[in-house]
Amino acid sequence: METAAGSVVGFWLMNILYAALIVFVGRIVVKWLVKLSRKLMVRSNMDAMLINFLSVIANAVLMLFVLIAALDQLGVDTTSMIAVLGAAGLAVGLALKDSLQNFAAGVMLVMFRPFKVGDFVEAAGTSGIIEQITIFNTIMRTGDNREVIVPNGQIYADTITNYSARDTRRIDMSFGIGYGDDLLKAKTLLNDIVKGHPKVHADPEPVIRVAELADSSVNFDVRPWVNADDYWPVRSELIEQIKLAFDENGISIPFPQMDVHLDKVDS
């Protein structure tokens, strides 16, 4: 009996020793693998936030496998445990469906970089400057200094317009003059004002041309190129200068009018 009991104790001691060894060696291997994966991600110029997050996930998943191997060495039925963990994971996944969608979208945004911090973008019905990109949300600052937190899932599922992605932008403007005004004089004024602005690019050359003969006006398309950062200031300055120049030179800018005729009815 003592021999049998001793062999059982010895068997369990050996299994416990092997399980502890699996955990010890497994931790070293997991640490090495996570460190190696971090180096590879850094070399591929991945975002630091994404690298940290993926490293934590990888460490947790690999350590879970190590613990399962150790429990299997102790004789624990790991098959049923894996099934329970799978069912629990499915339940948690269903409960956190929206959060997981935002997380997946956040990973995609960080990996593919449709925009970066500091860019002015329009996405998910919101326009603003990107302040911060987190795993679940993107924080934007609007032009009137409001902070807007948008779920990443909504951003990635919608059209993203990045106004800061290119160094230059084209300003599209339209000006109408009356049919009785001097068309060539108006075109010369537009040409002188636009090309004379110090922040308007000479290449590509600004486009100034007659666009259409509308119902009550002759419309010009005016399309100069500027640096992206100068878009709004230059646009406002050109509109102001053109209006003042038209006024000084007697060129009218037609606007909608309504004539009311009153007929006198004899009582």
Question: What does this protein look like?
Answer:
- With 267 residues, the protein is of the alpha+beta class.
- It is 52% helix and 18% strand.
- It contains seven helices and ten strands.
- The chain has a five-stranded antiparallel sheet.
- The longest helix is centred in the N-terminal third of the chain and has 42 residues, at 2-43.
Question: Could you say which structural class the secondary elements and strand pairing correspond to?
Answer: alpha+beta
Question: Major β-sheet, in short?
Answer: 5 strands, antiparallel
Poorly predicted sequence stretches spanning 5 or more consecutive residues: none
The SSE order reads: HHHHEEEEHEEEHEEEH
Q: Order of strands across the biggest sheet?
A: 4-3-2-1-5
Q: Helical amount among residues, as a percent range? A: 40-55%
